[in-house]
Design a protein that fits this description.
By secondary structure, the chain is an all-alpha fold. The chain has 3 helices and no strands. The N and C termini lie far apart (53 Å).
Length: 60
């Protein structure tokens, strides 16, 4: 009985998460994230940020 309730709750959570991910309001965010690898300026900022993070780890 308990396993059936847990399964039903997990199914509902999965469906809610799926609906959130595919909602039209999220499309702009996902489109922007999909373009990030093609955007040279954003890529250079990410690379510089990663380099700074590595340098801080070496100093610590």
């Amino acid at each position: 009985m308990l396993s059936g309730i847990i399964t039903a709750i997990l199914l509902v959570l999965f469906i809610v998460g799926w609906m959130w991910a595919w909602s039209p309001r999220r499309q702009h965010d996902f489109d922007a994230a999909a373009r990030l690898p093609l955007d040279e300026q954003a890529t250079s900022v990410v690379i510089a940020s990663q380099a700074n993070h590595r340098n801080k780890e070496r100093v610590s």
